[in-house]
Amino acid sequence: MARKKQIKHIAIAGNIGAGKTTLTKILAKHFNWAPHFEDVENNPYLNDFYNDMHRWSFNLQIYFLNSRLKQIVEIQKGNQVVIQDRTIYEDAYIFAPNLHEMGLMTKRDFDNYKNFFETLKGMVNPPDLLIYLKASVPTLVGQIQKRGREYEENIRLDYLKRLNEYYNNWLDKYEDGNLLVIDIDKINYDDNKEDLAKVINLIEAEVNGLF
Question: What is the CATH number of the domain that holds 51?
Answer without folding.
Answer: 3.40.50.300
